[in-house]
Design goal:
heterotrimer, A mainly alpha, B mainly alpha, C alpha+beta, B: MetI-like fold, 12 helices, about 75% helix, about 0% strand, elongated, C: alpha+beta, Dipeptide-binding Protein, domain 3, four-stranded antiparallel sheet, globular
């Protein structure tokens, strides 16, 4: 994980260096003269050669754990992330919750009624969800729920009600993938002998599906949930912009637009780290979901994954 | 040499029958056919845009600004008085080709990288996979935005920025396929007759790993079109006079209260395209799935 | 049969989606139908004195205190609201909220007057560069710290050291001369440079600032009439009126404080601005996106107060040798006469803009109002063609540089069209703001560049644009015009700042045509009539100062 984060740091730093544009002239605005600009570049250390700056950046980030301050606002980036990350996390978690609560029933219904109209209906619904650009959906939802029905706030931050529309508009895109995965892994297990046995034992159909089938079908589903979580975490900028939620996405986008290098670099490293942790959590969840893996965790994990 | 010839002769008809089988399987799947029909229709409309479009897509008419749909302008006009129907027809050229080209670029690079990693395994594989890990641990949208900023806005640059983002996924999938197939008998056979590595990858392993790639590419086009529209939302992507759907949609969103038609039509164009591509992808997946062969 | 069900479900679903979207929008369509706004035409700035008709549900419960103090106002704004630091530059420093955040040494009114705020008086010495400032001896901040001259000196020095606001670089030195007096020595005697310092220096206690963990980025201890009760970066900022403000009487109507709680709500997304006003999330919006304003004109629940902005939109010609326009005055004149400014205003600004009569906007200190009635380049295709005939233009492609953004791009596209119409080949170079600001001084990269140039005083504007010694490559467009530069140097000093000299520069620019002031946009302030505004007072940047404005009792 650490080499990956290091790689991300170098990659983003290099990319930002190639970004055309001059931070100093953005900081100082249109009335700055050449002298002012040069003084500012000096102050920011931008006149040093690339490798020196990279070295300083990596040293500060990884050895001193100092993410620096924003060029523009002079606010410590750690403080900013502390403020923005929770909002993005709430949004992402809410989005995933909606995704999962919609996708699981659809996927299960599709699998248990394979080939029948329920199957097709669920899959078509999921596909329509993936087909709508999220910001378009967001606008339509705002018109319906905020302007017409006046049920939910159209924008801003505050209580959980402020996150419902953003999460809803962000979640539909993920429903399709998740429902599809649920359906296919449910199909894999649903004809297994132990399901037949369970039914023969007289276990209720609901229990058969939830306790026996779903539990065994869960691993690939968890993988998809994990990847989607990571994807949503870094892809909330559009939703954040439209709903006026100051989160990580907006923070980084503003950084890119204003060539605020430290913001983009640290923001990206942070998101990458959170993403890696998510992936690790997925691995751990495998073990929790499947006792076989727990037993074999030492060596054969890869093999099981491939089977799934 | 003759062996190789012989082999080609042997594989040729098999490939064809495989293709026919897939096609046949696909034709059973009505939804996939529907997707295919929609997509092909769109392609034709877009190709014929100069013939069908009622107006020039850049012609501004200051007397007809933000007009609601009518008989003269079926989809209404935009904030500079341009005909939205014409812009959607031409915009399809940008949107669809952006999706298709970017996925083709990323699939090509992904395939090469993935094949190399999958075939050679070991240290090569390790290094390549770690590099891909690095790219993948950055949120896709963020990476695309940064690359787009570096390259600058514009049609070609946006395609490049989008495709970089798609490479790791394609590479990973092809690698997994390669690993599965690399121990197969026909590969051993090829190795035994001293086939070059490049040749084994290109003419044996690759065709046999191709089908999942096709599915992923179909869905990928849809994904890229969506991503491009998000880029436009942020202000990157194709530049204004050019009518890419996402750019039309995001440029029109401030008028959603007063002129909803400006938002509805480009949005529908995107949604229908994505739906069609996903239906196709789903159908292809089923058709290519060996589990459902019978 | 199965397939038929299939198709039906798909058709049904698609129909449902379309239906939902259509009902959601169809609604807004019908609302508008009744009173369609009278189309187009030349729409001038409206001082909407619309009588507030029955603001329903308005309950001024509290015993309507004398002047009609308003309980609370929520104002929608745009921008990157990231920090409250006194040294920040991300927000408009002339925005009305700054007055609630910090007391300045002096306040600048839209008329260009400097009203003493923390400073009691200021005087210039014989040498023309030394200023003596006296501040009030009764200034206390919200934590009870007493502000003395040393705090002001520290603040000035801090501004110079942080070098974030370029006009502080014009200071040579600062010195405390008494408990409440200080001396500021400027580097040169350019008119208005000191006044800029005056209005940009905040009365802040050094002790309070140094005790603050984040340099006032998120919480402020200030001397202003309001205190910050809540600040969420990028979202909202709430002020509450202090009852222990050191200054007991407002010495200018611009400095009245008639609202108890003021909230600024950041809404950058244009589609949400209109929704926020309509749903009552905000009572007013500062500088609403022009294309949305038309809808509010036909809405009886809202009023619009317009004011010229302090930034115009100008086209500057490159002065770099490599460019065809650089030394070809006829070509430049041809271009200017080819552009229909009224056409630009009607189609790009929806009527919400005024033509300019000088490269500088008419709100700058020093601008001569007589220019507004004088002849400026007009739309005259015949004349443009004649000048083009006289010029050395041989069909080269001219490049027009513009920074990205819906509004500017539309203007650029229109100008491109006008130039094409007289036979000039024109290519647009659209750059994002970061790249644009890095390229704008390099005249070799464009023939024409669109700039939103403004400021406070004419000399400051000239210094940015036409001083050939300002930048490495020459003036703002890499030109080396010694005559003009000498004229500037002679004019912008205190004894040279005469009407005659100023007019001479205007004439010189007009004849040589190195810049064309196109349009000055109108800032549209839209507010809900239920606010019960009886008189609006504007801030310098053309936005309504809802705190100073007067309300129904």
């Amino acid at each position: 994980m650490i080499p990956i984060i290091l790689g991300v740091a170098i990659l983003v730093f290099t990319l930002m260096t190639f970004c055309p544009g001059d931070p100093a002239s953005i900081i100082l605005g249109s009335s700055a003269t050449e002298e002012d600009l040069q003084a500012m570049n000096e102050q920011l250390g931008l006149n040093k050669p690339f490798l020196v700056r990279l070295g300083v950046f990596l040293r500060d980030t990884f050895f001193r754990f100092d993410l620096g301050t924003s060029y523009l606002t002079r606010i410590s980036i750690v403080d900013s992330i502390k403020e923005y990350l929770p909002r993005t996390m709430i949004l992402t978690i809410a989005t995933m919750l909606i995704s999962v609560t919609l996708a699981l029933p659809f996927g299960i219904m599709a699998a248990t009624h394979q080939g029948r109209w329920q199957d097709h209906l669920s899959m078509v619904f999921a596909l329509i969800g993936i087909s709508i650009p999220s910001f378009w959906l967001a606008l339509l939802l705002i018109l319906l729920f905020s302007v017409k029905l006046k049920w939910l706030p159209a924008m801003g931050i505050g209580g959980i009600q402020y996150y419902i529309l953003p999460a809803l508009s962000g979640s539909l895109g993920g429903v399709a993938g998740l429902a599809r995965q649920t359906r296919s892994s449910m199909l894999d297990v649903i004809r297994a002998d132990y399901i037949t046995t369970a039914r023969a034992k007289g276990v209720s159909e609901f229990k058969v599906i939830t306790r026996h089938a779903l539990k065994n079908a869960l691993i690939p589903i968890i993988t998809v949930v994990g990847t989607q979580f990571g994807k949503h975490l870094g892809g909330t900028m559009v939703i954040e912009t439209i709903f006026g939620i100051p989160g990580m996405g907006q923070f980084i986008i503003t950084g890119v637009n204003q060539r605020d290098y430290p913001v983009v670099q640290s923001g990206a490293i942070f998101l990458a780290a959170v993403f890696s942790i998510c992936m690790l959590a997925v691995d751990l969840l495998y073990a929790a979901a499947d006792p076989r893996i727990k037993a074999q965790y030492a060596g054969k994990r890869r093999k099981v994954k491939e089977h799934a | 040499m003759p062996e190789a010839m012989l082999e080609r002769v042997k594989t040729q008809p098999k490939k064809k029958s495989e293709f026919l089988r897939v096609l046949k399987q696909l034709s059973y799947n009505k939804m996939a056919m529907l997707g295919l029909v929609i997509f092909v229709t769109e392609l034709i409309l877009v190709l014929l845009a100069p013939l069908i479009a009622p107006y020039n897509y850049t012609a501004m008419d200051t007397a007809a600004i933000r007009e609601a749909p009518s008989l003269t302008h079926w989809f209404g006009t935009d904030d500079l008085g341009r005909d939205i129907l014409s812009r959607i027809l031409y915009g399809g050229r940008f949107s669809l080709t952006m999706g298709i080209f970017s996925i083709m670029i990323s699939a090509t690079y992904g395939a090469v990288i993935g094949s190399i990693a999958g075939y050679f395994g070991g240290r090569v594989d390790n290094v390549i996979m770690r590099l891909l890990d690095i790219i993948q641990s950055l949120p896709g949208m963020l990476l695309t935005i940064v690359i787009s900023t570096v390259l600058g806005a514009g049609y070609l640059n946006t395609i490049l920025a989008l495709s970089v983002n798609g490479i790791p996924g394609q590479a990973r999938m092809l690698r997994a396929q390669m690993m599965k197939n690399r121990g197969a008998e026909y590969v051993e056979a090829a190795q035994s007759i001293n086939c070059s590595k490049a040749r084994i990858i290109a003419s044996h392993l690759f065709p046999n790993s191709f089908s999942p790639l096709i599915v992923q590419m179909t869905m990928g086009v849809a994904n890229m079109i969506l991503m491009a529209s998000s880029l436009s939302f942020i202000g990157l992507g194709v530049q204004p006079p050019q009518p890419e759907w996402g750019a039309m949609l995001s440029g029109a969103r401030q008028f959603i209260r007063s002129s909803p038609h400006m938002v509805i039509f480009p949005g529908l164009a995107i949604a229908i395209t994505i739906l069609a591509l996903n239906l196709m992808g789903d159908g292809l997946r089923d058709a290519l799935d060996p589990k459902l062969k019978k | 049969m199965k397939q038929r069900v299939w198709k039906k479900t798909v058709a049904l679903l698609i129909a449902m989606v379309m239906l939902v979207s259509l009902t959601a929008c169809g609604n807004s369509g019908t609302e508008k139908d009744g009173e369609k706004p009278t189309a187009g035409g030349n729409h001038t700035t409206q001082d909407n004195t619309e009588k507030t008709d029955l603001p329903e549900g308005q309950q001024e419960g509290d015993a309507a205190s004398a002047g009609g103090e308003k309980e609370s106002v929520t104002i929608g704004v745009t921008g990157v609201w990231a920090t409250l630091s006194p040294y920040q530059t991300t927000l408009n420093q002339f925005g009305n909220f700054v007055r609630l955040l910090y007391d300045r040494l002096a306040y600048l009114t839209p008329e260009g007057e400097y009203v003493p705020q923390a400073a009691k008086s200021w005087e210039i010495e014989e040498d023309g560069i030394t200023w003596n400032v006296e501040i009030y001896d009764t200034i206390y901040d919200s934590a009870g710290n007493h502000i003395t001259a040393s705090d002001i000196v520290w603040n000035l020095e801090e501004n110079m050291a942080q070098a974030l606001k370029p006009f502080f670089n014009k200071i040579e030195s600062v010195e405390q001369t008494g408990d409440y007096t200080l001396k500021i020595v400027m580097k040169n005697n350019v008119v208005g440079a000191f006044e800029l310092v005056l209005i940009s220096t905040y009365a802040v206690s050094q002790k309070a600032y140094e005790d603050s963990a984040d340099g006032f980025a998120t919480s402020v201890i200030s001397t202003s009439p309001y205190k910050v009760t809540e600040f969420v970066a990028g979202s909202h900022l709430t002020f509450e009126k202090r009852d222990d403000y050191w200054k007991t009487d407002a010495n200018s109507p611009y400095l009245q404080n008639n609202v108890k709680t003021v909230t600024y709500q950041v809404i950058n997304e244009a589609s949400q601005q209109q929704i926020a006003l309509e749903t009552g999330t905000v009572d007013a919006f500062e500088s609403l996106t022009p294309s949305l304003v038309r809808d509010f004109e036909s809405n009886n629940n809202f009023s619009i107060a317009g004011a010229p902005s302090s930034n115009g939109s100008q086209m500057f010609f490159s002065g770099h040798e490599s460019r065809p326009v650089a030394n070809d005055v006829n070509l430049r004149l041809a271009i200017c006469y080819a552009i229909d400014v009224e056409g630009l205003i009607a189609s790009c600004y929806d009527g919400y803009a005024e033509p300019m009569h000088d490269p500088a906007v008419n709100t700058l200190v020093g601008y001569l109002s007589k220019w507004d009635s004088e002849e400026y380049y007009g739309y005259n295709v015949e004349l443009a063609k004649q000048y083009l005939e006289k010029s050395d233009y041989k069909g080269q492609t001219l490049e027009l540089m513009q920074s990205s953004g819906t509004q500017g791009e539309r203007v650029a596209q229109m100008i491109q069209g006008y130039l094409m119409a007289i036979g000039i080949d024109c290519k647009l170079t659209i750059l994002d703001s970061a790249l644009f600001s890095a390229s704008r001084f390099d005249g070799s990269q464009y023939d024409m560049i669109m700039i939103a140039g403004g400021g406070v005083t004419l000399p400051a504007f000239w210094g940015n644009r036409f001083d050939m010694n300002a930048y490495e490559l020459g003036d703002g467009t890499s030109r080396h015009d010694e005559v003009l530069t000498q004229m500037l140097y002679d004019t912008w000093v205190y004894d040279g700042f005469t009407e005659e000299n100023i007019d001479a520069i205007h004439q010189y620019l007009l004849e040589n045509c190195i810049a064309y002031g196109l349009v000055n946009t109108t800032i549209n302030n839209v507010y809900n009539n239920s606010l019960g505004l009886t008189k609006t007072w504007m801030g310098y940047s053309g936005t309504v100062d809802y705190v100073a404005s007067e309300y129904e009792a």
